[in-house]
Amino acid sequence: MKSKPDYKNNGTFKLFLMHYKGHLGLFALDMCCAMAVSAVDLMFPYVSKKSMERYLPEGMFKTFFIVMSVIVAAYVVRSILYFIITYWGHRMGVYMEADMRKELFDHIEDMSFRFFDNNRTGQLMSRVTTDLFEIAELAHHGPEDLLISGITIIGAFLILCSIEWRLALIVFASVPVFVVFTVILRRRMSRVSVEVKAKMAEINTSIESGFSGIRTAKAFAMEDKEREKFYRTNEMYVESRRGYYHAMAVFHGGMEFVLSIMSVLVIMAGGYYIMKGTLDYIGIVTFSLYISTFLTPVRKLVAFVEQYIAGMAGFKRFLEIMRTDPDITDEENAEILSDVKGNIRFTDVSFNYRKDDPDQPEVLNDINIDIPAGTCFAVVGPSGGGKTTLCHLIPRFYDVTAGSITIDGHDIRHVTQNSLRKNIGIVQQDVFMFAGTVYENIAYADPAAPREKIIEAAKMAEIHDEIMAMPDGYDSYIGERGVMLSGGQKQRIGIARVFLKNPPIIILDEATSALDAKTEYEVVNAI
Ligand code: ADP
Ligand code: MG
């Protein structure tokens, strides 16, 4: 298992490089092949020129054809190398992309309720999926393109110099122009690129909320409004892409101008030297032909810049999340809460959802409660009074803003979240059901539990008979979020989950609100 890079104290670029760790073998393979490919590319024009100059005029046909077959062989090798680069290089890129995705998912899983209150699912989905798509390409093509272009540009330059060094200098002057141009435009291109990603995330958010709220939309006959809402986001995306392409177009347009004007300059300067008699026609024709060897890698560099900007935009958005610390973490030497009796005590507990904003009214204010083990404690109050909030403080879904909560005398902030929550069973107001079967949903509390235990828990929660009446019994599919179940059935499956877990502390947050009086009585009795 690789250790996680230190996201706080390293720069963007360094962090990107750090992700090559663990794939250095593939990286080296990719680079070696890339180098060999550029060597072959440089060799061909040089060797063919030499052989045409030497072997043909002297009638050395045998040597000429031997040299040509060597070139054919070199191209066979080159295509094999290309295969390796394309296949293994891309795999390396995807491995890195997958590594980042894994880190990101791990990190998001560690986040507290507050994080998910403030970040929309569609946004997070985008960060984990689309934002990282271009990273693989950059990770693989980036260094390879740089290396191949670097070698061929230098190589081509040397060859051009050997023909006519003054013309070569004119050609080479385009390189600094290219660099300056890139530096000037880079800022703007990066900014729009990040913007495009943010808009894509908005599209995802809009789709997510549109589809998950489709039932409500239909109930209010609001499909058209939803469509409009989506169209607007979609247009905003088009607009941001327009900005992106605009920046790219300026970049490409400028680059193309520099590259083509170069040929004109060469002819102009060449013409001048011919008139002065220091260069012959053959020289300038060969020279012009060689320029293409030089242009290909420069074009590659242009493509690289584009790739770099798109990839880095995704990487920056990746870093934004990686650099956000979960606001609830285990203390360094947090104890493991064990042998829980279940004495819960609230001491002067105050709580506010927006702790950084002191003007916000407290949701809970100076609460003192003592719940001895083995007792049942009920909280009654108006809707919005803070009952759910109170329930959420005990498993430390949120941290209290003032005061403390203890279980058997242990402050819950000094024990591990895992051990704390292992000892608490909570049935929330709206129980979440995973898409899957009834069986899987009850077994969620303890996937290793034998079937009898699950059935027993279902019986205690008064849901067994209803499950048996379903088409496939315990293996019936319940739909996303349990849409195929009634509210009361969902609540009882939630309760069955907690029975299966059988923790010392049980929290029911209006968990029987959707049950009829008789069933409720039986469920409460079972508890
Ligand atoms: P109850 O369960 O008693 O009906 P809640 O505990 O759900 O009440 O809510 C108490 C108050 O806290 C309400 O005013 C509600 O608007 C606010 N609130 C609840 N959840 C959040 C949240 N995740 N973020 C911000 N405010 C919240
Ligand atoms: Mg509530």
Which characteristics define this entry?
four-stranded antiparallel beta sheet, two-stranded parallel sheet, binds adenosine-5'-diphosphate, binds magnesium ion, single chain
Mean pLDDT: 89
Distance between the termini: 43 Å
What is the radius of gyration?
A: 34 Å
Q: Structural class, judged by helices and strands?
A: alpha+beta
Give the bound compounds.
adenosine-5'-diphosphate, magnesium ion
Strand runs, count: 6
Weakly predicted, low-confidence segments: none
Biggest sheet layout = 4 strands, antiparallel
Widest beta sheet: strand line-up: 2-1-3-4
> Strand percentage, roughly?
5-15%
Helix content: 55-70%
Put simply, the count of helices is 17
General form: elongated
| Secondary-structure element order, N to C | HHHHHHHHHHEEHEEHEHHHHEH
Q: What do you see in this structure?
A:
The chain is an alpha+beta fold and 527 residues long. The chain is 65% helix and 6% strand. It contains 17 helices and six strands. It has a four-stranded antiparallel β-sheet with strand order 2-1-3-4, covered by helices on one side. The radius of gyration is 34 Å and the shape is elongated. Bound molecules: adenosine-5'-diphosphate and magnesium ion. Residues 117, 353, 363, 381, 383-389 line the site of adenosine-5'-diphosphate (ADP).
